Amino acid sequence: MFQTYDEALTWIHARLRLGIKPGLKRMEWMMERLDHPERNIKAIHIGGTNGKGSTLTFLRCILEEAGYYVGSFTSPYFEQFNERISVNGKPISDEEMLQLANAIKPLAEELESTDLGGPTEFEVITAMALYYFSKVNPVDVALFEVGLGGRFDSTNVIHPLLSIITSIGLDHTNILGDTYEQIATEKAGIIKNGTSIVTAVKQPEAIRVIETKAKAAKAPLYQLGKEFNISQPETLPNGAQFNFSSALYRDLNNFKISMLGQHQLDNAALAVMASQILSQLYAFLIDENQIGAGLERAYWPGRFELISDEPTIIIDGAHNQEGIDALASELTKRYHAKKINILFTALADKKLDNMIAKLDEVADSITFTQFDYPRASKAEDLAALSTSANKHTEPDWRAGLERLLNEQSENPDSILVITGSLYFLSEVKPVLLQLLK
Question: Using an 8 Å Cβ cutoff, are 147 and 155 in contact?
Fold first, then answer.
């Protein structure tokens, strides 16, 4: 038994050594030993390449505005580990994390002695979340974000009220496949028999995969651009505004969101459609005002997050090609008249050449750095992929950050964009806030 939170956290993190082990057998074994907590939860399953966390947050805030007690399981964490399991946006306490670790540890040790092998870090955390939302602190509804893929992801033991697939992109291609069809097949693995599926996927070849799986599972499919739509989108200084229409409900107008970026309109629309399905099919009491209030207050750190207006500093966890494309588009739209300075690093297992080429297009200067993480790229390797005439290499990200802040103070018409790995941003943000005091 663990005596302290730190002991528990060290044990959980130590399981990273087991890497990624796709498959549901270990999760099913643990669920049986825990008396199937996954069967006692009203769950919503959210998969996709980008936008999972934002979509979950929009939907969570809508449900909270409607008075529901909402659990969330997300990854990766941004500021503290406990936020991966939260209720109404509040991370569970250290004491609760210790309690959960002590509940799962004996199972993990027993499982380790079987042919299945020990559970990975993500499997342990998933089991903890399911046990918590079912047995320790029962919630009205729990939102589960897929960790990787979908078909063999450990969250796929749940039996959701509905599933959401946000987008399809070429990420984790070494595991999920290197075509949109292959990746869509993995994402579509969360579609369950007769369970509604909501999606904003745009690529025709990926949509065909989802349509085929939904038809085979007799799962009602709601696609952005077909069964529900956004109209009259308008960029606002601190967010956006849009109208919404669907086949289930009357048109809803003038919804506002505070998250920046055109892609966030799609994520918000997914959440609105999901709330309508919950209302129409499962008797959730959610009205138009609650939807509007939830959308407007939704906040998700590290996603085109404006840290400071003067000087203008943005952090954005654009960690794959689709994320970089969205970032570049938004920077061009909002800050085309300003000098754009970028601080960037990423994990080495990403497809980095095209990502960096896109950043080169929008950056007036770009500084490549690195951070202490097992799969992190080296600054010089990133810089070697860049064709920018104004590129810099700074292995010490703190030194690079301080230099860029000093340069920005001398040029008020510039903006600083810190982007790349979310793991990197979680290290940078507290230091940045301290430097800005």
Answer: yes
DSSP of 119-146? PPHHHHHHHHHHHIIIIIS--SEEEEE-
Q: How many residues does the chain have?
A: 437
**Where are the extended beta strands (E) located within 20-140?**
43-47, 70-73, 85-87, 90-91
Distance CA 347, CA 354 (A): 14
- CA proximity to 164, closest of 250, 261, 273: 273
b vs e for 346-360, b when ≥16 Cβ sit within 10 Å of the residue's Cβ? bbeebebeebbebbb
Q: Which residues of the chain have pLDDT under 50?
A: none
Bridge pairing between strands 339-345 and 365-370:
parallel
Query: Which among 263, 297, 331 is the end of a domain?
Result: 297
Max Cα-Cα span within the chain? 62
Q: Which helix H or strand E contains 413, and what residues bound it?
A: none
- H-helix or E-strand spanning residue 290: helix 288-297
Strand partners, 164: 46, 198
Tens digits of per-residue pLDDT, 281-339? Answer: 999 999 999 999 999 999 988 889 999 988 999 999 988 898 999 999 999 988 988 99
Tokens for 286? Answer: 């959610």
> 238 and 259 share a domain?
yes
CA angle 342, 348, 350 (to 5 degrees): 80
The angle that helices 52-65 and 263-282 make with each other, rounded to 10 degrees, is 50
Judge if 293 and 316 occupy the same domain.
Answer: no
- How do residues 26-44 score in pLDDT, each as one tens digit? 999 999 999 999 999 999 9
DSSP symbol at 310:
T
Burial class (CB in 10 A: 0-12, 13-18, 19+), 228: buried
* Whole-angstrom distance, CA of residue 272 vs CA of residue 242: 12
- How would you classify the pairing of strands 43-47 and 90-91? unpaired
**Residue 176 amino acid letter:** L
This model's pTM is above 0.85: yes
181 lies in the same domain as 85: yes
- Residue 290: its pLDDT value, please? 98
How far is the C-alpha of 421 from the C-alpha of 419, rounded, in Å?
7
Q: Residue 391's beta-bridge partner residues?
A: 366
Q: How far is CA 264 from CA 75, 298, 400, in A?
A: 18, 11, 30
Count of the separate structural domains present in the chain: 2
